[in-house]
Amino acid sequence: MSGGAGGVRPVSCTVKPPVFLRIGDDQADPARSGVCVVDVTLPFGKTVNIEAISFKNYYTASVSLRLLRRSPGKEAPARWSTALRDLPLMDNPHTEGGSQDYYSIHRKQMWVEPDQVAAVRLVLKQPSSAWISFSLEDISILPQGTPGPEKEVSDWLSDLTLVDHHPDLEGLPDPRAVSSSIQQMWALTEVMQTNQTTSSIGRFDVDGCYDIKLLSLT
After folding, report:
1. What is the biggest distance separating any 2 CA atoms in the chain, rounded to whole angstroms?
2. How far apart are the first and last CA of the chain?
3. CB atoms < 10 A from the CB of 98, how many?
4. What is the full DSSP assignment across 79-147?
5. How far apart are CA 63 and CA 86, in angstroms?
6. What's the pTM value of the predicted model, to 2 decimals?
7. Each residue of 49-90: pLDDT tens digit?
8. Best CA proximity match to 106, nearest among 191, 15, 6, 176
9. Measured between alpha carbons, how far is residue 48 from residues 8, 45, 104, 122, 132 in Å?
10. Confidence class of residue 151 from pLDDT cuts 50, 70 and 90?
11. CB 33 within 8 A of CB 20
């Protein structure tokens, strides 16, 4: 149940605020009902073939999944179908185990084919009164599909037999030593430019006087 579909980008969707089931006229603490509904909708007119639905739990004991599916090639209205019922997310509703774990519900776990889906409804349950609130976070829908061109190319390259071939570098300096020397020269140049003086220094001028020995050598 945990884990994700690597390399697949989630579809664009809107996660609506949770709606808590109220018991009687209790408006003060709707979370105490122990049931809430989270709807996830796609852009108008769009559908998706679902590979997985991923999310992070936040003190939800179990989740049920319903899908609003359209019939391909038919103008009949979309219908809700139950794809999963009361999937446990916590080891025990009264303890911390699994309360903030990441989960993924995969296609093969669903009771119906999750194709041509226009909306997803998650029904959350938490029968324990030990927790102030419960929900799901970071909800995303991963579409079914084949890997992109980059994946296909990498798979093709991995099947090739690589041949070790090193050019003859005998007699040439070590590239790492050359690189290090260039970096040191660059750093020295930066320091010299920073500390460069604007005063003129004579060719044989030493402390304002001419050195006889230097003049005699020219």
Report:
1. 111
2. 87
3. 18
4. EEEEEEEEEE-SS-TTS-TTTT-EEEEEGGGSSS---SEEEEEEEEE---SSSS--EEEEEEEEEP---
5. 5
6. 0.63
7. 999 999 999 999 999 999 999 987 767 789 999 999 999 999
8. 6
9. 13, 10, 17, 17, 35
10. very low
11. yes
Q: Of 54, 55, 51, 84, which is closest to residue 67 (Cα–Cα)?
A: 84
At 187, list the tokens.
């750093």
**Do the strands 19-20 and 35-41 form a parallel or antiparallel pair, or are they unpaired?**
antiparallel
Q: How far apart are CA 110 and CA 104, in angstroms?
A: 12
Three-state SS for 68? strand
Question: Do the Cβ atoms of 21 and 30 come closer than 8 Å?
Answer: yes
Count Cβ atoms below 10 Å from residue 183 Cβ, excluding itself: 10
